[in-house]
Every structure is written in structure tokens, then in C-alpha cells.
Amino acid sequence: MNDTAERTGPLAGVKVLDFSRILSGPYASMVLADLGAEVIKVEPIEKGDETRGFPPFQGKLSHYFIALNRGKQSIALNLKSPEGVEIAKDLARQSDIVLENFRPGVMSRLGLGYETLRKDNARLIYCTITGFGQESPLGDKPAFDIVAQALSGVMSVNCEPGQAPNKLGIPLGDIAGSIFSLFGLLAALHERNATGKGRHVEVAMLDSLIALQGYLSQIYFVTGQSPQPVGSQHPSIVPYGSFPTSDGHVIVACLTESFWHNFARCLGHADLIEDPRFAAYEQRLANRDALQVIIQDRMTCDTTDYWLDRLSAFDVPNAPILSIGEALEQPHVRDRGLIETAEHPTEGSMRLVRGPIRFDGEGPSAARAPRLLGEDTSDVLKNNLGLREEEIEKLVARGVVLDKD
């Protein structure tokens, strides 16, 4: 059922034509949908977005697809056929934003590149997310999250000293590209309100990860040395990280001198505050190993729960290390309303993580469940392009569109 009229939020009325798949593009278009935009997801008629096949499943819907595609409509379209390309062009003429994350040149070869689409829609904002960008010597290299993480340098510091490098537990390479594309899209929308002209927004995943390195890059620029892995510790702030207890681990984060003083008193070692080895940032960094031994000897005498209570009593930033399930079920998530339930007509109820942005204290409007492949094809063609039922049936028969999976 087409329910675009129910969309609310700051982007209500903005139309997005989304050719992207897997993660870097779909995450961005999902956020746009959360903010009220009408998003039409264009998928290949054969199998749709590749993530539809990634187990585990709820009914016919993949967990991966569910996580990245709430709030969108699905039209299954054969872009290898001239008729399919013309339908895509017709939809692009009505759109405010086109989003794609193919390798450089693919959309142009399909006849759906920026220069082509802007001729019929000068207000169009066209966003391209790639692994490396068109000017990169790596431009034609296939790019996935772990590839971007490896090339960004972030994997080299994501491990304990002397251990093999690890990728981050979340797909930050993909998500970084998504987040920066959203910055660009929203800026371009703001500019278009003044000029009436669209833009071509381009974001590369590797560029985005490098932009997120922050002080790690600056350590290299200042010292000429690449930061070395310190596990959960901080490269320049001590003490900061995971510390063992008698039955687990606790996070302690003494980013400021006052928190360090609170922590020393919490440990029963107020004398460490004036100890010349630990009195200031540079001394603690130089004597990290010695301080670690003192902290561990004390903290392993008591349980995690004991330390969580005591650290909070002394106003030391702290946290338990939760599993994904524990994190999703914690009171914070419940009280902030970060999980909601959406109903799909055939696949049943599904729990979804809600978008985090609030306006005037209110979060996004209620999510629509992710769609089956081609579930909205008829509605999109009827409501957006004015096609009649018999015309749609002919397109289905010719393999131009898929009406429903």
C-alpha cells in the first residue's frame, strides 16, 4: 500500500530515487526516510538488492536488508532494457535526489548518469558514493567495508599490541560514506532553496574514513610516527580503556585531570596524584605500564559490580562492556524509545532500531517495515507516472518490471 502521504518530518515532500544497494547507499537513504523523505528504492528484477540473500531471515526478509531499508518503497526494474531505463528517467524527472553507489561509470553506461539526468531536471541533486572516487588510482577496484578499513590505517591500530589487526566490529567504512553523503545532500538541498540549481555530490568511503581519524592523523603529522596499537587503551591519554576485575572487565575513561584524581582516590591510591611518575598527562603516558600494574593489582581484588558502583560514587566515567543483546535491552534504550515494532502484512512483526535524531523532543515518525522485492512497483508506476493496470501488466510480461516477489 502506498502511504507516502503519511510521511512527516523536516524532509516531508522531498522525493528520493535510490539506486544504491548493500550498505553505504541504503543507510543514507534510510536516514532520509527517517527524516520524512519519500524514498523509492530501485532494485534489479532478478534478485533485488544483494543483501536480500544474506541469512538469517525473518520470513522472506534478510536481517541485513531489514536493518537498512525501513521506510522505503521497492520497485523492481530491469535497467538493462530501454523501457526500464526510460521509467527510471521518468522517475528521476520528478525527484529531488538521486542516490547511487555503483563503481564509477556504471550509471553513465546505463544512461542514468548525472549529466544525462540533469538535462531534464536542473534542480536534481545527484549523490554518488564510491569506494575511492573517480580520480583515484584505485577507482576501478571493488570496495567493501573491510577494504576501506584496511587502506585507511584504522585496522592497524584496532588490536592489542603485538596481535593481528582486526576490522572494526561495525561497518564504519560503509557508514562513514553514508554519513558524509548525508552532510553533502542536506547542504545541497539548502543551497538549492536559494539558487534553484542542483549539485553532484560525490563521497568516497576511503576518504570518509580518513576524515574520521581525527587526532590519529595529527599524531603522525606532529611526530612523524604512525600511532601504534594500544587495544582498548588511548594512544595519548592514561588511564583510559578496559581494566580487569575479579570476574570481568570495566571501562574507565579519565580524559581530564579531575577524573584522574577521582579515579586515584577511588582506587584508594590518592598518593598517585602527587607521584611524579603520574602527576601529569605526559608523565602518565611515559609510565603507562607501571600505572597499569598498580591499577590492575587493585581492581582484580573486587568484582565488576563493585567497581561500577564505586566508580560512579567517585564520579569516574565508567561502563560495563555489554553484548549487542544486552545493549539493546538496557534501560537507556527502552526509556529513549530506540526500538520500535513495525508490522509487515506477510512477514509479521519486526523489531527495528529507531533513528536517533529528535526535533522538539520527538523522534522520527513510526517506521514502515522493509518491503518485499517489487512490493510497491504497481503503486509507484500508478501514482508517480500515471500508468494504468493493463500497461503495468504488459511491462511485467515483457520483463521490464517485477510487480511482486
Question: What is the topological layout?
Answer:
Layout (H helix, E strand, L loop, with lengths): L14 E4 L5 H11 L3 E6 L13 E2 L2 E2 H6 L3 E6 L4 H12 L3 E4 L5 H4 L4 H5 L6 E6 L14 H8 L19 H24 L4 E5 H7 L3 H9 L16 E5 L4 E5 L3 H10 L14 H6 L1 H12 L4 H10 L4 E3 L3 H6 L1 H5 L3 E6 L3 E6 L23 H9 L3 H9 L3 E2 L3
Parallel strand pairs: 1-2, 1-6, 2-5, 6-7, 7-8
Antiparallel strand pairs: 3-4, 5-14, 9-10, 10-11, 12-13
Molecular structure report:
- It comes from Salinihabitans flavidus.
- This is CoA:oxalate CoA-transferase.
- GO terms for molecular function: CoA-transferase activity.
- InterPro entries: CoA-transferase_III_domain (IPR050483), CoA-Trfase_fam_III (IPR003673), CoA-Trfase_III_dom3_sf (IPR044855), CoA-Trfase_III_dom_1_sf (IPR023606).
- Keywords: Transferase.
- This protein is an alpha/beta fold and 405 residues long.
- The chain has 2 domains: 4-212 and 331-402, Rossmann fold (3-Layer(aba) Sandwich); 240-322, formyl-coa transferase, domain 3 (2-Layer Sandwich).
- Helix content is 38%, strand content 15%.
- It is built from 17 helices and 14 strands.
- The strands form 4 sheets. A 7-stranded mixed beta sheet has the order 8-7-6-1-2-5-14, with helices on both faces. A 3-stranded antiparallel beta sheet has the order 9-10-11, with helices on one face. A two-stranded antiparallel ribbon has the order 3-4.
- The longest helix has 24 residues, at 172-195.
- It is elongated.
- The model is unreliable at 1-5 (pLDDT under 50).
